[in-house]
Amino acid sequence: MQTIIQTLPKQKNIALVAHDGKKTALKNWCFTHKSILHTHNLYATGTTGLVIEKTTGLCVEKLLSGPMGGDQQIGAKIAEHQIHMLIFFWDPLASQPHDPDVKALLRLAAVWNIPVACNEVTADILISSQVMDQEVSRNLPDYQSYLATRLD
Q: Which residues form the active site (predicted)?
């Protein structure tokens, strides 16, 4: 598939997601990086967003809870180019009833070439990157061209 170049803006739309066993870690991470996060737009699954807002005072657009469709809502925003970064503290040792949704969310992040952190140290590296507050170019699948060739 051919690709096109798209620019991520200086002010990023960041999705914040955490499994139950990792909500405290994500809450603490957000508190630590509050000074950076407040300059960006934050989105989160429902319970996670509520915990982050109450603890940090950051403004978070809360979607549905993950198992109720919040992971899929974030995935849709990724596919529509509305999310520029995913911070997803997932618990690899706990079985999750919505594992297919989680896998789909991570697949969409890979397809649409957005930065993803699945643990604290990776999130630290992303948030402290020199380009965090700059425009960043990324290659995306040229889905419109792909569809056009299928219709010929």
A: 71 (proton donor/acceptor)
